[in-house]
Amino acid sequence: MPVPFNARGVAALAVGATVCSAAMAQPDGGGPPANYFRPLVAEAGAGVNGVGGVSGDGPYVLLSNFSLAFRYDVQSRTLLNIGPGWGHDISFDGSTIVGGADVGAITGGFVWTPDHGQRLLRNLPGFGDQDSVARAVSDDGQVIVGSLYGANQPFRWSEATGRINLQLFGQGNLSNVSGDGRFATGWTMPAGAVTGVRWAPSGAAQFLAPPGGAAEPLVASFDGSIIAGTEGGPIFLWREGQPLRHLGAFMGASFNLISDMTGAGDAFAGTSLVGNSLVPFIWEEGRGFSSLAGFLSGRHGLNLQGYTLEAVDGMSADGLTFVGRAHLGSGTVTAFVAHIPAPGAGSVALVVVLLTSRRVRRSPVLGA
Question: Are 174 and 164 in contact (CB under 8 A)?
Fold first, then answer.
């Protein structure tokens, strides 16, 4: 999610579950096993350790060496150079990437697709000749949100509408967009107080709390009806039509950053500053906070190979794939990708009733 978190269908009613604690081995000649932890230092190189996120369905990871952006294919273990800059977000199927660049003649927000390559936002129809940075993209790749340089004016763009500047009260900033592309999230300053906001497709602002509340919304569910963010250190959860929930802070951390949320909004992942250490976490409805390392290794049997996780930068919409950064001892930081099995697959046996929809998937980790 930079913050965008980078954040986003199937809902499952779990009747029973049995979790096997051992990680599965890589099948000969096949794709990734049902669950795995993979440091990317060999495939991506030590310098490619900036992580922008993961596609909603999990096969692609957005990476950067802070001058070039890359798309990593989990299945083929290959890197695709998408051009100068750094990637901030990736669409559900991995076919659209947005970000920002300041490399030679390539400056400002960009969008990349396989058909058109890397294009600057100011060259898109209806955008206008203004420098910008792209922060997030909708699941289908059609809606891009970001901020204009200088005035820090948040915007949304689609080919159908062109650029729409979002309503501000004094200063403000934009963090993300819902998976369906309807709502953008961020903050502005009514009455001079930083206040969380959800912007409608028209650009109109809806406050998440009275002035000074829900200070920094960071991630949203697929339909934008659930939003999580921070109020300085503590974390909040907002549900449409319900009072704001104050969740506290993971391990009492003084600083918390949320990077992604499942499409159903029942789990989100982030990183906390605990003492002098960065500790990735996951929050689940009904369970609360857990360390990501304990969640992956203890509950889902992944072998972390001695690595210490120091940040989680993305989570797939179904809550099965996580990407971030880790280090081995005092060694170089590397990007990683971790995957846990879906209910009914591999090491997890579940009796489920599946209710299908396009993107929103209830996180299968709940109740596991």
Answer: no
Report the alpha-carbon distance of residue 208 to residue 253 in Å, rounded. 23
Residue 208's contacts (CB-CB under 8 Å, 6 or more residues apart) are 195, 196, 197, 198, 214, 217, 227, 238, 244
> How far apart are alpha carbons 273 and 1 in whole angstroms?
17
Contact 85, 69 (CB under 8 A): yes
Q: Computed over its alpha carbons, how large is the radius of gyration of the chain?
A: 19
Q: What is the pLDDT of residues 223-252, one digit of tens each?
A: 999 999 998 789 999 999 999 999 999 999
- Give the 3-state secondary structure of residue 4: coil
What is the distance between the alpha carbons of residues 141 and 340, in angstroms, rounded to a whole number?
A: 26
Count CB-CB contacts under 10 A for residue 67.
13
Task: Please state whether 253 falls in left (phi above 0), alpha (psi between -120 and 50) or beta.
Answer: beta
pTM of model > 0.90: no
Taking alpha carbons only, the member of 206, 180, 121 closest to residue 155 is: 121
